[in-house]
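Attaching the record inline, Q. Sequence:
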Amino acid sequence: MTTYLFRRVSTTAERQANGMNGQAEKLLAFAKAHEWQDLEEVEEEASGASLKKRPHLTRVLKELKGGARLVVTGLDRVARSLFDLEGMFKQSDVGGWSLTILDLGIDTATDNGRFAAQVLGAAAELERKMIRARILRTMDQLRAEGRTPGNRSKVPTSTCHLIVRLRNKGL
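Structure, as predicted:
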C-alpha cells in the first residue's frame, strides 16, 4: 500500500520561508512513527485555487488505489473549495483510499475524520469568499473616491501618452 506524502507551496517566497522543508520533515516523521514503508514524496509549487492548475496532485489522485493514503500537513495543501474537497472524497470512496491531515489530526478513513474534514473545508471556502468580498468592497470604495484600484503602472505617464499618440497616427 503506497502512502503519498504531498507537500505544496503557493509561491517562491513561501518556498524560501522553509515551507517545503518544514512540510517534508513533518510528513516523514509521521510516516516513520507509523512505520509506513512504501512512501512516495510529491512536491508541487502552485496556487491552491483549483485542482486544474495542480498537475502533480491531479496525477497522485489518479494513482491512488485501495488501501493507499494521501498524507498532507494541512487541509489547505490539497483543497481550497468545498467542491474540490468533495471531489476528492468521491474519488476516495470509489478508489478506497484515505486522506490524512496532520495539523488537524484527521484521517478520512474514519467517519469522524471525514465529517471533520468536510466541516473544515466548508469553513475554508467561506473564509476565501469573505476575503474576496472584502477585496471587492475595497476596490469599489477606491473607485467611488476616484482612485484606480491595483498596482500603479511602472511606465511613466509621458510614455503612455506618447504610445497613444503614435497609435492614433497609425504607427
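The beta strands are 3-9, 39-45, 69-72, 98-101, 106-107. The helical segments are 12-16, 19-33, 55-63, 82-95, 111-144, 157-168.

More tomorrow.
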